[in-house]
Specification:
Layout (H helix, E strand, L loop, with lengths): L3 E6 L6 H14 L6 E6 L5 H7 L6 E5 L16 H6 L4 E4 L2 H6 L4 H13 L3 E6 L3 H5 L3 H13 L10 E5 L13 H16 L8 E4 L7 H5 L6 E4 L6 H8 L4
Parallel strand pairs: 1-2, 1-8, 2-3, 3-4, 4-5, 5-6, 6-7, 7-8
The structure holds 2-phosphoglycolic acid.
The site of 2-phosphoglycolic acid (PGA) has 13 residues, from strand 8.
Amino acid sequence: MTPTVYAGNWKMHHGPDAARQFARTFTSLVKADDARELWLFAPAVSLGALAEVLRGRPDVRVGAQDVHWEPKGAFTGALSIPLVREVGASGALVGHSERRHLFRETDEEAGRKVQALLEAGMTAMLCVGEQLAEREAGETLSVVRRQLDAGLGALRGADLARLRIAYEPVWAIGTGKVATPDDAAAVHAAIRAELAARDGLAVPILYGGSVNLGNALGLLAREEIDGVLVGGASLDAEKWAELVGIGG
Ligand code: PGA
């Protein structure tokens, strides 16, 4: 059985002290379990503190929220894969909708980041998803396919072993408007078909966008949905432990 993936995206919350406290509380409440894959995508300044507390808990993986594709150089303000790896990250989000829409990151940049992460032996969690106007115009699947095509480039088969996809409709992020399990499952099935064409059938596909304790079980009950990427509801260690425990 493939593990259910529970990924917390802290966005611009939790400095090193709060991250340490979170990790201590969370690990006291949640035991390691092969049926789960756990991720915390923390602000870059907190990665080291988080990884230090989680040293004895390799089942709770630490990830960056973004990386640059170049390993080093004159890129003021950016973080390379070797830099985040050195402080304990084993993966990163790529192309989160806030990066795409607030910081104008392109499909092509997401592709370079995915490629660089996978080449470095790190996990890439590629985020895709349509905006409200695109959904209303019936463009959901074409937008998601475009983002996947650019994000994955020529990657296929064994290259994809460390890839995860997160489908996050932009209109559902931080808005309290969650996609119905049926809507999400339909997009997941289309993503699965794209991955199958690249021999990547085993790639986990997460849903994200206003996931909380009240709706997570309904989403995860769908066989198309392999996990959840959660922002707001991942910030409190006790509540996050409860959400991670819903599957038993
Ligand atoms: P949300 O964020 O759970 O607060 O909607 C999800 C995300 O942006 O990954």
